[in-house]
Write a structure and sequence with these properties.
The protein is an alpha+beta fold. It has two domains: about 1-70, no CATH class; about 95-175, 2-Layer Sandwich (GMP Synthetase, Chain A, domain 3). The chain is about 60% helix and about 25% strand. It is built from six helices and five strands. The chain has helices at about 1-30, 35-45, 45-70, 75-80, 95-110, 145-160, and strands at about 85-90, 90-95, 115-125, 130-135, 165-175. The strands form two sheets. Strands 3-4-5 form a three-stranded mixed β-sheet, with helices on one face. Strands 1-2 form a two-stranded antiparallel sheet. Helix 2 crosses helix 3 and helix 5 (about 95-110) packs across helix 6. The longest helix is centred in the N-terminal third of the chain and has 27 residues, at about 1-30.
Length: about 180
């Protein structure tokens, strides 16, 4: 379908170029208005040429309506925003951003030092995955070790579960939770 759209755009642009040149020639007086009118009249009133012009006009009207109201690239853009579309010989698989975020949350909550986790996943057209994790950690957490282990584990888990490479895992420690005293 994209080839047909491109070919139609070339033809449409060529016709618009010719019409624009003819209009410029008429405005500057370099082309006789009567001659141009007779040529157009002969093309439109001719039996065969009139049907060709009518058919082309209908095709261009329909294609214009399609291009104005039904943008073919909007589907691809929405899929990129929703998740990653993977294809193989057996079919298609859509992995949503929410699925990836839930996967990251489950990995992070398996760490004892992580008390609360919020995750955001960004995807681009090349299926690059960037993960942003916000953590509230316990007071006994060793943040440097926790973040390094968490980054490695998130990359590993997403690779195993989805076969996607994670480009970045960015961790923000928003807060260290106060130590809760044990009641006696």
């Amino acid at each position: 379908m994209k080839f047909i759209e491109k070919a139609t755009l070339v033809i449409y642009s060529t016709i618009m170029l010719i019409v624009s040149i003819i209009l410029c020639l008429l405005v500057f007086g370099w082309l006789d208005m009567g001659l141009a009118g007779n040529v157009v009249k002969d093309i439109i009133t001719g039996a065969t040429s009139g049907k060709i012009v009518l058919g082309l006009s209908i095709i261009f009207i329909l294609l214009s309506i399609k291009c104005i109201f039904f943008d073919s690239s909007s589907k691809d853009k929405s899929l990129v925003r929703e998740g990653i579309l993977l294809e193989n010989e057996s079919g298609k698989l859509m992995i949503s951003k929410e699925t990836l975020e839930n996967l990251v949350n489950s990995v992070a909550l398996n760490f004892q030092s992580a008390e609360e986790v919020t995750t955001k996943v960004e995807l681009d057209k090349e299926n690059n995955v960037k993960v942003y994790v916000n953590l509230i950690v316990s007071s006994d957490a060793i943040i440097k070790d926790l973040s390094a282990n968490l980054q490695a584990k998130i990359k590993e888990k997403i690779k195993i579960a989805t076969d996607l490479e994670v480009k970045e895992v960015n961790i923000t420690v928003k807060k260290v939770a106060p130590k809760q005293d044990e009641e006696e």
